[in-house]
Amino acid sequence: MEHNSSIYREYLRILEQELVPAFGCTEPIAIAYAAALAAQTLGERPDRLLVEASGNIIKNVKSVIVPNTGGMKGIQAAAAAGVVSGRPEDKLELLEGLTEEQRGEIRDYLQTADIRIQKAGGCRTFDLTVTVWAGNREARVRIADSHTNVVLVEKNGEILRTAGTDEEGSQAEAKSSLSMEGIVDFALTARLDDVKQVLDRQIEYNMAIAEEGMKHAYGANVGKVLLAAYGDDVKIRARAKAAAGSDARMNGCELPVVINSGSGNQGITVSVPVIEYARELGAGEEQLYRALLISNLTAIHLKEGIGRLSAYCGAVSAGTGAGAGIAYLLGGGYEEIIHTVVNTLANVSGIVCDGAKASCAAKIASAVDAGILGYYMYRNGQEFVDGDGIVKKGVESTIANVARLGRDGMRDTDREILDIMIG
């Protein structure tokens, strides 16, 4: 790919926009961010809050710990933490600097403030509005489609900002140019200096939380169970460390991660198994970077048609990306990579998302396992072909079918999951 071409610059922009740090599960952090921005707009600490959130946001906030709050869970805790933090400029990292004194303030604030929750209307899977009041003064912030895409800021009925979609519009336009052929071309020809900073940060952050998850007890300890049951072969270790990172993140570990497609779990899944394989194989820095480019961009490509939030588990897209990156590290070229993608999607595309919680780690382990199996199937002359269920001839046709399944076919599933979870 020509380095001065528009598509090369678009691919770089996708990486810069998607691979960003986040402190804690991104849905509660989005609520905290909206609440912090609303309180800042109001100009004083509110005594009442209304959080209107789409079902997928409610689903993903219900069971995870809000980071740096001393173990608090839920939408009210996330909103209160955002108000107390007072740092909306830090976006998805705004809770990282909370002090012990502020944690006490959050607990007190939850006792005194009236914080109400309401399911948002409309059909957007990611829709969040936080309205705050102090006396008869009011401010409102709305975020739509992705975690930091502010589309409305309002104070006392006066609109201060609307349709903050310039960045998101550019992002959507850039992502529409993604294809497996373009991804592999970009990954194999990219100047390493152009991607080094963003990938180094991903390696540092995501391996740190994976190692933390392996050292200590978090959640269901899926990583430790895998190693104890199956040994420390790299195929197991790759799954175990990714699962451990998720277990830590879902259960209160106060370390940041670099996300992918708006998700920290997906960010861990696309990176940790690839890094673990690179270390096992003695791969050089260049090989690792190029493998991570394939993994990250494949996952983003798969998610763009599905949407940020869905009943379709995002670990599947990320595990598919990891399989593609591992295929490259094991000597695979374009054909091996795309057949790994198809074989993986044919296997585990039925995994549902029932919110962010401890079982995400087990789903990650399954998705990464499917990605690795997908590569070894093709290497041994086996593959799923056109007509095998949702598989169609051509990798992009299969990806389009998966997008349709996750975006359209699982809407009713999404509603049923939410009804089951919240009664």
Largest sheet: 6 strands, mixed
Which percent band covers the strand fraction? 5-15%
Overall morphology: globular
Low-confidence stretches: 165-174
Instruction: Give the SSE order as H and E letters.
Output: HEHEHHHEEEEEHHHHHEHHHHHHH
Through-space gap between termini: 52 Å
Give a structural overview.
The chain has helices at 6-18, 26-42, 55-61, 75-85, 100-112, 166-175, 180-189, 192-215, 222-230, 234-250, 264-281, 285-306, 314-329, 334-348, 360-379, 395-409, 411-422; strands spanning 21-22, 48-53, 114-119, 127-134, 137-144, 150-155, 158-162, 257-258. It is α+β, with helices and mostly antiparallel strands and 423 residues long. The N and C termini lie far apart (52 Å). Residues 165-174 have low confidence and may be disordered.
Descriptors for this entry?
single chain, about 425 residues, alpha+beta, 60s Ribosomal Protein L30, Chain: A, 2-methylcitrate dehydratase PrpD, 2 domains, six-stranded mixed sheet, two-stranded antiparallel ribbon, 8 strands, globular
SSE order and pairing:
Elements: H1 6-18, E1 21-22, H2 26-42, E2 48-53, H3 55-61, H4 75-85, H5 100-112, E3 114-119, E4 127-134, E5 137-144, E6 150-155, E7 158-162, H6 166-175, H7 180-189, H8 192-215, H9 222-230, H10 234-250, E8 257-258, H11 264-281, H12 285-306, H13 314-329, H14 334-348, H15 360-379, H16 395-409, H17 411-422
Parallel strand pairs: 2-3
Antiparallel strand pairs: 1-8, 2-4, 4-5, 5-6, 6-7
Helix pairs in contact: 2-4, 3-17, 4-5, 7-12, 8-10, 8-11, 8-12, 9-10, 10-11, 10-15, 11-12, 11-13, 11-15, 12-13, 12-16, 13-14, 13-15, 14-15, 14-16
